[in-house]
Write a structure and sequence with these properties.
Layout: H1 9-22, H2 26-33, H3 37-50
Helix pairs in contact: 1-3, 2-3
């Protein structure tokens, strides 16, 4: 059995929006949400670069 957590698209979008709108670092927001910094960083990168520009969630 895997210990891997599954996050909804809504949670991911909200986490990225929190980084963008709060001006806080990815590390600070990740710690607050109880997720790894690298996970949130990947979501942020994908949300901005992977989609061809900033997203408006």
């Amino acid at each position: 059995m895997s210990n891997r957590r599954i996050f909804t698209e809504e949670f991911k979008a909200g986490a990225v929006q929190l980084v963008v709108s709060s001006g806080r670092s990815i590390k600070e927001v990740a710690t607050e949400l109880g997720i790894k910094e690298g996970t949130l960083g990947a979501w942020c990168h994908f949300g901005v670069v992977g989609r061809g520009g900033p997203r408006s969630w």
